[in-house]
Each structure stands twice: as structure tokens, then as C-alpha cells.
Amino acid sequence: MNNLNRSIQNKKYFANRNIGAESMMRYKIPPYLLSILPEDKGAAILDVGCGFGHVLDNLRSLGYTNLSGIDISDEAILHCHNINLNVEQISSLEDFFSKNTKKYDFIIMTHVIEHINKEEIIKTLTEIKNTLTATGALYLTTPNAQSNTGSYWMFEDFTHTTIFTSGSLIYVLRSAGFDTIEFLDPADLARHSPIARIIKKIFLKIYKLNKKFWNKVTASSYHKPSPEVYSFELKVLAK
Q1: Which of 31, 36, 55, 198 could be cross-linked to 190 through a Cys-Cys bond (beta carbons 3.0 to 4.6 Å apart)?
Q2: Number of structural domains, the chain?
Q3: Is the residue at 197 inside a domain?
Q4: What is the sign, positive or negative, of the torsion defined by CA atoms of 160, 163, 169, 171?
């Protein structure tokens, strides 16, 4: 991350984005994440870019005891300390991983990778891979460039440096040494009722057919080996 991005995020990043701690703390862990959390409540879990600690706070309420987080934001760290979360303010991910000696069973990285300079992304993911235990896993989310909002999320946040498709995310994760990459809840169905899931599947099928039709008309295409994910987020479990 360059000095400009780091300075912006240190000094009132969330305030400048109209994001408050109160709204973030209404977060509830989604079903697909609940299903992949470590069974051992004493597992070492690290939240990279923990923000206001909304994920860590939820994990604590579920009984997890070995929790820690890191972030560069002054306002986020202050709030985390106020609610007694074990978090550390860092100057950069590179600095943190150069000093860290602890191994983690589960690392969470939600909406962080898109803020990292492109030339540093694979290196950072490699450091994360090396920080995991032999059976550890990385849970990562990032905006999806193939979603209906497309490149909007590249430019909505001034500190974003890149945005991913499923294919480009697979590329950087494999380059970093992750062998198993699973896209979680690709149709964003887990949070809906059974009836809503059926309706959403029908409309999503129509949406895909429409995409296919206009790709044919305009001689456009998607990379066939890459999974088709159209939800706002790419959600991945990588090992």
C-alpha cells in the first residue's frame, strides 16, 4: 500500500466513507462462514483488516477464545480497544508479517485485498499462507468485478487499487501457494428463505441467459475455465 492510501486509511478512513461503528456492529456471521469456522473454539484466529471488530465480536459471542486482529485505522483500533478486543494497530501488512512469529489456524481477510498495491498482492498472500498452520485456512472476500455493479466498486472507494473476477482471484491465490480454492455461496442464496432461493435461482438463470445472448451479439465472452460468480462479493475458502 502506498503512502497516500496508508495516510487516508489511518486518518478517518471510515468517517470519510460514511461508515460508522454502530452500523458495522450490527453484522451477523453469515451461514456459509459459520459452516467453515474451526470446530475448536481455542483455534488461533486472525482478522486481517479487522475494522471495528464486528467479525471478532461475533466470534467471541460464539465462544472463540484465541482471537486477534490487525488494522491500520486509528478510529477502528480505538473502537476495538473500547470493546476489549485483542487487536493491534500496524503500519503495514509487510511490517506485521516481517515481525510475526505466530501461526494461525484460520485467517480472515474481508475487503482488504482490493486495497493492496497490485504488485504486492501475491507477496502478501504468500506471507499469509506461510503464517497458517499445516491445516489452516484463509477466508477471503472482495468485490466481484463480474457482478451487476461491475467496476463501480473499483472507483466507489478511492483507496481501492484493483478489483477481481473469480479467475484473477484464483490466479493470485494459486501463485501464493494455495492449492484448494472454494468459492462460497456463489449465488448468494444462503441468507434467503427456501422460497426466496427458488425465486432468485429463476431470475439468476434469466440474467445469465441475457448475458449469454448479448455476449453472442457483441462477440464478447468470459474465460471458460473461471467460475461464473455474479454476486456482489467473491467469497473464498483457500488452503
Answers
A1: 31
A2: 1
A3: no
A4: negative
Distance in angstroms (rounded) separating the CA atoms of residues 239 and 137: 5
Domain that holds residue 34: 3-191+225-238
Give the model confidence (pLDDT) of 23-70 as tens digits.
778 889 999 999 999 999 999 999 999 999 999 999 999 999 999 999
Does residue 130 fall inside a structural domain? yes
Residues 13/115, Cβ–Cβ less than 8 Å: no
Asked whether residue 217 is assigned to any structural domain, the reply reads no
Of 95, 169, 160, the residue nearest 127 (C-alpha): 95
**What is the H or E stretch that residue 106 is in?**
strand 104-110
**Nearest residue to 121 (alpha-carbon basis) of 158, 67, 160, 154:** 160
pTM, 2 dp: 0.91
Contacts of 196 (CB under 8 A, 6+ apart): none
Written as nine digits, the cell of 167 is 479467475
The burial class, CB within 10 Å (0-12 / 13-18 / 19+), for 179 is exposed
75 located within any domain: yes
Query: Please, are residues 48 and 93 in contact by the beta-carbon 8 Å criterion?
Result: yes
Q: Any idea what the CATH number is for the domain that residue 126 is in? A: 3.40.50.150
Helix/strand/coil for 70: strand
